[in-house]
Amino acid sequence: MKRQAAMAARMLGVVSALTLLAPTTSAATATAAPATRSSTQLLIDAYGDSTTLGITCSEGHCAAQARNAVAYLQQALHEHDGERVRVTNYGVGGTTAAQLRDGTGNRRAGPTAGLPWRERLAASPARIVLINYGINEVMQNQTPEQFYAAETTLVQTARALGKEPVLQTSNPMPDSRINARLAVMVAMTRRVAAEQRVPLVDQYGYVSSLPDWKTLMSDGAHPKPELYRLKAEQDYRVVEPLVRRLLDDTH
């Protein structure tokens, strides 16, 4: 167990070094979009750790993959709602909700990444904000109370700025001891969603219910592309009705 925990920690530690450029690429893609947007275009920002970014590991090598949950969600929304909806991936490996709140995560992840959450979000035209954390809080020995406070601030700030926050619980981790600690963080995310009355995508509950979910993990924390696709289906079920309502409100 200790060896598996150490391996998971090493993997999460190298993710930030391996994936510095991936979020920048996402942000650069968003910047390269035409300057004149349709008045009905709806933008979604996805914030989170390496499981948002889309890390998959194979033979000890971890890297961001094009087949990740955010990309699959973008594809599904395009198929249903067309080019009016665009999702930008701001996932950064090794980061926590508190770092997003304070602006102390990877500063290469877009032009506003070094700003505190309120300033960064105020500069974003996104209407919907996806928030996915929990794993690195466990690996960095944060307390559930610290995580609860950080996620509460993220949600309340997003709402104060006119955004629609959507919380996501982390996918489970194969190591049973680490996963038990993660379950406590997941409970905090569920609590924040209930208290703040915001949509919740309970990935932890969904993935844990799959009989073969451990075979869909590429290492101790990161899904294989097949599991990222299944996670995106859960995201879509919660996000698409919100997208539809916001699009309808623009007419």
From TrEMBL:
Highest taxon, organism lineage: Bacteria
Extract the Gene3D superfamilies matched here: SGNH hydrolase
From what organism does this protein derive? Paraburkholderia sprentiae WSM5005
Query: What Pfam families does the database record attribute to this sequence?
Result: Lipase_GDSL_2
> Domain SGNH hydrolase-type esterase: where?
46-230
Supply the name of the protein: SGNH/GDSL hydrolase family protein
Protein keywords? Hydrolase, Signal
Q: Where is the signal peptide?
A: 1-27
* An annotated Gene Ontology molecular function: hydrolase activity, acting on ester bonds
Lineage at the top is: Bacteria, Pseudomonadati, Pseudomonadota, Betaproteobacteria, Burkholderiales
Instruction: Supply the CDD domains for this chain.
Output: SGNH_hydrolase
InterPro entries with a match to the protein in the record: Ester_Hydrolysis_Enzymes, SGNH_hydro, SGNH_hydro_sf
